[in-house]
Amino acid sequence: MCMAKICITLASLSGMLAVIFGAFGAHALRDKLDGYAFGVFETAVQYHFYHSLALLAVGIIALGQPQTALLKGSGWLFGIGIIIFCGSLYLLSLTGVRWLGAITPLGGLAFIAGWACLAAAGWKLLT
Fold it and tell me: Could you say which of 33, 74, 89, 98 would form a disulfide bridge with 44 (CB–CB 3.0 to 4.6 Å)?
């Protein structure tokens, strides 16, 4: 139950931040960023939303299933991915500091691993 509570709460807060960042980008940054930087910001917002929903799914699944290491790992990996992938893209778009793009793939790997853990957890739960 604790894992479900944490995942659902963090997913909700993460989704709220994605809405705030999306609105900020659309209203405050559209005329301030060049096309490349604005596209990077939009990508960050999209992945932030997708993975907030993924984290919510993990929490909902955890409500009815015993805590498995795979499910717990999936939640952690989605959270880490949001911070590293989306965070680095937000910073890159706002600051123009290009080396931040070098750490973005680490967040992408966390997303991929999170989905893999979720798939494996689903497979185990349904067999």
Answer: 89
| 75 in Cβ contact with 3 (< 8 Å) | yes
Two structure tokens written together for 25: 């980008």
- Evaluate if pTM is beyond 0.90: yes
| C-alpha span between 94 and 37 (Å, rounded) | 7
Helix (H) / strand (E) element for 104: namely: helix 104-125
pLDDT, one tens digit per residue, over 57-84 is 999 999 988 678 999 999 999 999 999 9
Range of the domain at 90: 2-125
Q: How many domains does the chain have?
A: 1
Place of tokens 């689903």: 122
35-40 long-range contacts, CB within 8 A, separation 24+ = 37/92, 37/93, 37/94, 37/96, 38/93, 40/89, 40/92, 40/93
Tokens of 122: 């689903």
